[in-house]
Every structure is written in structure tokens, then in C-alpha cells.
Amino acid sequence: MVSSREGDSMTEVFRWGILGTGGIAKDFADGLAELPDARLHAVAARKRASAQAFAQSRADKGQHPQVCDDYAAVIQHPEVDVVYIATTHHNHVALARQAIAAGKAVLVEKPVGLHGDEVATMVAEAQASGVFLMEAMWTRFMPAIQALQHALAEDVLGPVRLVQADFGIDLPHIDAQHRMLDPALGGGALWDLGIYPLTFSRLIFGCDPHHIQSIMIPAPETGVDELSAILARFGDGGVAQLMCGFRLRVPHQARIYGPKGRIVVDDFFHPQAFTIEPHEGEARTENYPFTGPGYQFEAAEVQRCLRAGLQESSVCPLQETLALIRIMDQLVQQWGIIYPRGAL
Asked: Which of 231, 241, 227 is nearest to 193 (CA)?
């Protein structure tokens, strides 16, 4: 960290290094620009030219990161406090382990990995080294999501019996080399899209499902999951109906049902509102607007934890990350898709 003067006071500023320069790296950098105590300090990509273009594009946000020759240079950079990993999925674990070995705090874009045992090893190494590690599951940090959890804790619906969540986009013209279709890069709808309905259902029920089954339609080009429906049972009487796909556009909406009514959440993976529709009484919408892309909330949580000397976040604890990857492991095994191990 470095200190920066704001008015008459000094503020500790965290210096971030970003690995990867795709769309989500840009959005995350926009989020950092919303935080006065965060600085985009360094960036690297597979090709230096991509990192240079990314760095130049940040000037309008007041960010002027150093361009490093490769990922290792960012990880080993003596002035980088936190490493954010935004590469393709297959490299997440390997890069995170390198950063952990270097003693750097790590925020890993979801999914943190493609195999539960590899993620467990990464988590164990972080814990043994006393290094902060967190999955960048931004949904957990949205103000509306936290307000929604509070409303459910206040028994606004009674015991939740049913959660429905859908996440479908339409990518009609991609070829077999596109990362969404390439199993070597962690392709398939589950890792990019299905992770959100799964996360949402676990957030609402607060536990692992004890029974899960699914139907999957493979992409004809490569066999990765193009469209799937997932049915899971939670606790003594809760059910989740979940859907994801990358060649079918559907509203990104979640619906939560209990004996007293339902809650509807549009854009449930980064909502700014939700509507409570009771069986008795008037429906009401609760709004939680924010500026910026929304990635600032997870970055702020990382910095809060580091200031407090914590190794993990209570909002997105490592046990939640491990539980989620185990569920996804189970689904991938049901579907017979094989993903690479030990990338890089």
C-alpha cells in the first residue's frame, strides 16, 4: 500500500495488478476507478500489445498502469499489493497459485477453477501461507442482494420453498475456436452463466443441495454444454429450478417463492432492485441503485479485509467457493465433459 493525501487526511491506497485484458478486466478496472483508495498499477496479457492497448484505454478514467511483459512480472512486481486474475478459466488456478507463492493477495475471477481438487489445493496453499484469497463472485456484494438476504431473514416470505433462476444469452455466430465452445479454455455455459443461478440458489437456501440432477444439450461443434436445466433439492423442503445457455436469450430473472408470496429479481446476478409480491397486501419494489459497473463492491471488500488483516471474506468465504465448485464438478461429471488440468 501507499499513502495518498486527500484534503487534510492521508488515505492508504491499494495498488492492483490485473492479469488479462478482456471485457471483464475492463469492467473491473472501471470498478477500481470508483474507489478513491484503489489504484490500477500494472497489467499484463498473453500479448504485450494487448496490455499496451488496454493501458492506453484507461487514461480517460485517470488510470495509468505499467505494462508488464508477462503475468509473472505482475505477480512479482514489488509495488503490486493485490492481483486480480481475469484470464480465461483454464489458467485461473495456476496463476492464483503463483500469486499465493509470491505472497500477493489474490482475487480470482469466477470460476476460480475447473476442478474441485485443484481449487482445494489452491485454497489450502493460501491458508497455509496466510495469504488472502477470494473468488470474484460480484453478485454476493451487490447492495440489493444483501438487502434481499436481510428481507428473507425477516421472514417476508416465510420458509423459502422454490427458487427459479434463468441465465441465457444468444451467441449465434461463434465458431469452434471461440472460448465459449473450446473445452481446453473452459468453454460451456455452466462456467460463465450457470454459475450465477447456482450461486443465487445457494445464497437463498444457505446450504448445499443434497440432490441434484440435470438435462444438458451439447453444442454440436465441440460437445460443451450449450443449454442445460438443473433441478436441485435443498434442506427439508426447498427446490431450485435453474437454467443456463449461450444460444438462447432469456430474461436474467430470479423468482423466490414462499407461503407468504414471492420476490422477483431482474438481472439477479447484479440487481439494483427487487419486488416483493405478498399474497396479502400491495407489491412493493425496493431499489438499491449504484453508479459504475458494480465490480467496485468486491474490490472494496478485498481492501476491507486486507486492512483488517483477514485471510478471507465473510461475504464470500472460501468454503462457499469450494462448495460451489463441487456442485459444478458433479454436473460436469453427469455430462461427461472433460476439461484440462494444470494449465500454464
From this structure: 227
**Position 321 confidence tier, pLDDT thresholds 50, 70, 90:** very high
Asked if residues 96 and 17 have their Cβ atoms less than 8 Å apart, the reply is: no
- Domains detected in the chain: 2-137 (3.40.50.720), 143-287 (3.30.360.10)
Sign of CA dihedral 151, 153, 154, 155: positive
The pTM of this model reads 0.95
Mean pLDDT for the chain?
95
Residue 199 grid coordinates? 450461486
Number of residues that this document lists for the chain = 344
Instruction: Find, among 89, 138, 77, the residue nearest to 313 by Cα.
Output: 138
- The answer on pLDDT for 23 being more than 60 is yes
What pLDDT was estimated at residue 344? 56
Q: Give the closest residue to 240 by CA, choosing from 137, 327, 124, 128.
A: 327
Q: Which residue shows C-alpha cell 503475468?
A: 71
Query: For residues 312, 313, 319 and 324, what is the CA-based torsion angle, rounded to 10 degrees?
Result: -120
